[in-house]
Amino acid sequence: MADKRDLLILGGGLVGMTLALAAARKGISSHVVDRADPADLTAEGFDGRASAISTASWNLFRNIGLAETLEPHGCRIENIAVTDAMRPGRIDFQPEPHEGTLGRMFANRQLRLALFEAAKSEELIAWYSEAEIVDRQRGEHGVSATLADGTSLEASLMVAAEGRGSPTRDGAGISLAKWDYRHRAIIAGLIHEKPHDGVAWEIFYPAGPFALLPLLDDEAGRYRSALVWTVDEADADGVLKLSDRAFLAEVEKRMDGLFGALELNGGRSSYPLGFHHTAKIADHRLALVGDAAHGIHPIAGQGLNLGLRDVGALVEVIAEGKRIGLDPGDAQSLARYEKWRGLDAFMVALATDGLTRLFGIPGKLPSAVRRLGMAGVQRMPSLKRWFMDEARGMSGDLPELLKG
Question: Where is the FAD-binding domain (predicted)?
Answer without folding.
Answer: 6-320
